[in-house]
Fold this sequence. Notes:
Elements: H1 5-20, H2 26-33, H3 37-43, H4 47-71, H5 76-84, H6 89-93, H7 102-105, H8 107-116, H9 122-134, H10 143-156, H11 162-165, H12 170-185
Amino acid sequence: MAQTLKDQIIDSFIAHFNAEGTDLRLSEIATSLHISKKTIYKVFASKSAIYNTIIEKAAEEIRERKEAILASPKPTKEKLYDMLTIKTTYEDAFNMPRLSELKEGEPTVYADLLKAYEVSWASFEDLLEQGKKEGVVSPEVNTALTVAALAGAYQALYKNDFLKKNHLSYTQAVLQIARMTLDGILAR
């Protein structure tokens, strides 16, 4: 299936972001796609709109994967791990350590990115409560505190060049967060 112009712009945008960070210019994207900058503006109102579309598409992908995890016949313990390690197609496409550059170059987008990790924890909370009922999760685990800690941990990956400074890929960091969390909350 042929890519839509919107998807082509997003793919080129990501490639340019990976190479140039927030200094990327829409004129360069237009040139690489052999279209005019005006054509980009017919699809996206601004550079921020492209970032926000990517964040929205990633959030939708995560929502769909969460639904699939919840519907699966796997045990709760595996569902918890799967939920914590959901990987979007954008995580493979983006140079994830560069996303910390958004703080200076695109502060509104950066705030939106961090906010994305504060919402949509309801299904994970439900799984934790289910795990408590099944005896898989320790009954002493405070669900709200666990979710707040997780949201903060995921947000920390985008702050102060954390991934670069600690020589971690985004995937490695997410897997470690999942392991640490589950080691701390699962019943012994």
